[in-house]
């Protein structure tokens, strides 16, 4: 009976924190190596050597290189949106809330150019994916920004433009700035970049007279 009891004794409880820490260590190295050498030239063996472990350790946490790569991108996107959220005070004025978010977004990618490289590689290597990780996370966060936009409209501080249109244009501006900084090199401080983007977004480029003229002409053609 004692032998049977011994067999039934539960094994050592799994250390969840240790597993998460080791998983994070693998992802840290994987992000850097994928960014440096590319998806195709970064095999599991190379990542294992950099960590000083055997390939089996990597496969214990990630069943395939594809999984490791996509989880690396997912982690980076989670960090991006957590960073933006942390940089924006919850009690901030809605417009200031948006301005701080733009600055934080540009700062994150400026400090982590390797993440831009991973986003480019994801598009190049996994064209069959219907939705890239960046845009998955962007869509998940739309609810919050929709509420901010609705508050500004209700207060009469911005025009009642469809949120989808505002979000799309906003995305064009900051996503384009991020890619341009990566490919061309940042030519001005982040603070000034954010200020320029927001200045054009808030005030536009047309004079009051020209806006009035164009709106009047548009009404006359209806």
Describe what this molecule looks like in 3D.
- By secondary structure, the protein is mainly α.
- The protein has a domain of 152 residues: Tetracycline Repressor, domain 2, CATH 1.10.357.10.
- It has twelve helices and no strands.
- α2 packs across α7, α3 packs across α4 and α6 runs antiparallel to α9.
- It starts with a helix and ends with a helix.
- The N terminus is likely disordered.
Chart the SSEs and their pairings.
Layout lengths: L1 H7 L7 H22 L6 H8 L3 H7 L3 H23 L6 H18 L1 H13 L7 H8 L1 H13 L8 H22 L5 H14 L4 H13 L2
Helix pairs in contact: 2-3, 2-5, 2-7, 3-4, 5-6, 5-7, 6-9, 6-10, 6-11
- Run of helices and strands: HHHHHHHHHHHH
In CATH's first tier, which class of the domain at 69-220 applies? Mainly Alpha
User: Helix share of residues?
Assistant: over 70%
The stretches of 5 or more residues where confidence is low (pLDDT under 50) are: 1-13
Number of strands: 0
Kindly report the CATH topology of the domain at 69-220. Tetracycline Repressor, domain 2
Radius of gyration: 24 Å
> What's the oligomerization state?
single chain
List keywords for this structure.
disordered N terminus; 12 helices; 222 residues; Tetracycline Repressor, domain 2; elongated; mainly alpha; single chain; 76% helix
Structure described in brief:
With 222 residues, the chain is mostly helical. It has helices at 2-8, 16-37, 44-51, 55-61, 65-87, 94-111, 113-125, 133-140, 142-154, 163-184, 190-203, 208-220.
């Amino acid at each position: 009976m004692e032998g049977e009891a011994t067999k039934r004794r539960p094994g050592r409880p799994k250390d969840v924190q240790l597993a998460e820490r080791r998983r994070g260590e693998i992802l840290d190295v994987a992000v850097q190596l994928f960014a440096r050498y590319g998806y195709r030239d970064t095999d599991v063996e190379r990542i294992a050597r950099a960590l000083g472990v055997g390939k089996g350790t990597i496969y214990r946490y990630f069943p395939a290189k594809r999984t490791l790569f996509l989880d690396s991108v997912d982690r980076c996107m989670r960090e991006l949106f957590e960073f933006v959220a942390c940089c924006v005070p919850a009690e901030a004025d809605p417009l200031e809330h948006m301005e701080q978010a733009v600055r934080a977004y540009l700062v994150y990618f400026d400090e982590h150019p390797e993440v831009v490289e991973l986003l480019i590689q994801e598009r190049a290597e996994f064209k069959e994916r219907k939705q890239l990780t960046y845009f998955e996370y962007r869509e998940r966060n739309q609810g919050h920004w929709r509420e901010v936009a609705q508050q500004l409209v209700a207060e009469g501080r911005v025009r009642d433009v469809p949120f989808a249109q505002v979000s799309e244009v906003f995305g064009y501006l900051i996503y384009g700035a991020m890619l341009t900084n990566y490919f061309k090199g940042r030519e001005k401080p982040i603070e000034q970049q954010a200020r320029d983007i927001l200045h054009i977004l808030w005030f536009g480029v047309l004079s009051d007279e020209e806006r009035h003229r164009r709106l009047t002409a548009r009404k006359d053609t209806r």
